[in-house]
User: What shape does this take?
Amino acid sequence: MASYATEWPAAIPRRAQGSVKDFDLLLDSKWHLKKVFGQLENGHFWGWGKGPEVAGINARFALMDDGGGVDFEGQQVKLDWPRVFRRQLTFAVSTCNIEVLLRNTSDWQLDMNQCRVQNDDISAYGRVRASSNEGKPAVDVNLVMERGDIARFGDYWPENIMNKPTLHWLRTSLLSGRIVNGRFSMSGDLDDFPFKNYRGRMQAIAPVEDADLKYAIGWPHARQITATATFDGPGMIVNGRIGDTGGAVVDQVDARIPDFKQPQLDVEFRSATGLTSLTGFIKQSPLLHGMDLDPDQFVLSGDAKIDGKLHIRLGKPNEHLQVAGSVQMQDAKFVDSVSGTELDALTGSLGYSRDGLAGKQIAASFRDYPVTLDVEADWDADEVFRATLHGDLPADRVIPDNLMLRQPLFSRAIGISPWDISLSIASIEGREKRDIWLEIYSGLEGTMIDLPAPLNKSVEASWPLMVRYPIRSSRRILTAYLVGRAQLRMELLGEDSKPLRAAIGLGEKAGGLPSPGQFVVTGSVPVFDLEGWVDLTVSEFSKAEQSDGLVLHTASLDAQQIRIFDRLFDDVELEMLYEDAVIFGEFDGKDIVGKIRHYQNEDGSNSLTGEFERLIMPDPVTGGVTMETNPAELPEMRFFSKEFSYLGVDLGETRIEGYPVKNGFHFDSIEAKSPRLELSASGDWTRDEEERSDFNIRITSESLGAVLEAMDISSAMQGGQTVVHFDAWWNGPPAAFALERLNGEMDLNIVQGNILTAEPGAGRMLGLLSLTELPRRLAMDFRDVFDQGFSFDQATGTMQLENGNSFTDDLVLKSTAAEISIVGSTDLVAQTFNYEFSVRPGVSKALPVIGAIAGGPAGAAAGLALQALLRDALGEAAEAKYTIRGPWEDPKVEPVTRLRGGTTSRQNPAAVTEPIADGAEQAQTTGEEKND
Assistant: This one.
């Protein structure tokens, strides 16, 4: 062509091969085509610039100077176009017709119709129009892809349009699937291709069935995809549904690659799905990689709605897929099989992203109580995850079950309080695995702690509590801190969190941990209830042997008050030690100095031994009316104190021995000896249908007055050798002893005593009887006999006590001066008297003796004279009666009658009586008349 000064047409290949027959070519003088006819077999064309190399074409052609037609086909057509396709393509072409319109060499149009192309990968048909234009031709293409195997599309992606990362992603991610009746259209000037300026349009619509897509490394495949892929301009949009991705169904997916030259995949998705399948997807995704947990320990069930967005730069294998979205839960359930945590009725929104999770105020039910759940996760932070429950809960719903079973003391927190319960996962420097902790906080308002002081908490009090429980940590130390009150540090062992050892600080932080199997107690507290803690500790010892629980090793405490024997002792230092199943205790305080030892015998029974230098018992705290202690479970007791005081009585050196019996506790011996008295007793504390104490008590003393003075009961009595035998009982334990609950019978025998005159209220004979007003009253009637008080030779009688009331009808005080009989009662609860005294003078015997002692024979004569005078003063009176009634503090002593004739009203009810309300004046007047 160059020889004829004619440019070779760009649309015609420069080189060709094949067999031509029936060829007829006619050119004009200017070498312009006039006509060409012929047939081509196995045509092979190449060398036409950027065009492809084509082989295997069979054609018939008939062209004139203004156009014509070409029909071609081929069963093994080979297309080799490296600029567009990475490999040679082979396919069959059915009869294809090309209509050619030629106006001149620069003005032409080609219409390719009824063309069908197919092989094992695709089957397509359609038409193509190309026309001359400045530069590259203009095209109008419409194709239909009847079928297409997506798994074999790797060679068909146009490399002149897509960059290498995009091609790599398409070729490695589209694993399988079918295209059915897809369509491709392109219209525009190829100089503007790929039509970013919208001067042309290229679009492909590909309905996809049963596709399998690996969209990102590490994420579950998207399988069973039914979608429509739309290639529009420089990018692609896909809308459809995913039947299975990691076990989950995605109802709606919208994916987009905006520009194949700068490939980025953006996906939006929405679905209503079961949470079980959703968690299956999450477990197979990288979303939980930052938690460092076994995802199989979690079970999430129920229905939910999920939406989200994915973003990834294609062809960047080292770059993470970005994901963000939310899960809308409705009445869902969560179970953690490791901790046993269950949440029901989960309702709310949980946001998620590749960086973490976030959810606020998600409603839930925790062990049948309403709560809310907050979730925060940041995979790049030191604390990668925290989930917190907020709710009003009972303590037994909060404390982990394994701790509740191993340490029953936790069950003594009773009530409902606001709680915050957090699961925390955090990175620790220098450790490969992250720590997992359960953290608990509450002010405990509404919760009572049924433990002995100082850990006895009322319902209303606010005691801030912080607990950290290790689920997984190299240092498995449980801490529980009652702010400003106590701290527990407990090392746990093994997956079952068995307690290994513990330290308790009361009023301060806990110290170092002891040897395995033990716990220690230290601190300084206002009040320490040792009695309560010993009961608990003893009960725990028996369990410890069976459950491998912890036992006390040492306790070192300073207490402003320490409670023992239902009493509070001030300023006591306590040291305790547990060794070889024996508890040793040592006390050092103002009123208590001594040691105790408690041990468990081989038969399982317990023994308690106490040796004290001094034990001054204060008043009981509760009165001891009720005690939870079962007396049959008390230890065998041996007690000794050199100095012992009880109920204000200095008992001196005291010993007590007793032991438990089937239905209670038997006090075998109670012995006390002091300078003022000796006491011996024995008795029983029983608990059958009711609780009762029965004691047989004997008290002897050389001076009842000294005893009463020691008891700070009376200072109006002097002397009096005394023997008291008391067969007593009362409802309740021994510590419930009180006058108002006392029952039984008391025999009293006093020899050589003296009742002094005193101001009202000064004397209380054992709180049962007041005689101090009697000498004053009698001194008005018989001043010469009673003016200096009343000395008696013997006092005997019996008192019956019944539920706070004392009765007597045989109490008699005898002396040479008079004999006094007392009958009546006293109300020990209301503290009132109701007594009647009968006085029989005995001056005929007393005065001569007194006179002889005072002045020899002359004194005796004076005594006889005084006797005669008094006989005249008393006249024929044989007996005088008085009553004592009213409160103990101010009783009223009043005369009743004087009987004449040497009889009493009980001896002769018909005897004449005379009022003696003015008896004192009569006695005084009679004495003056005799003197005159």
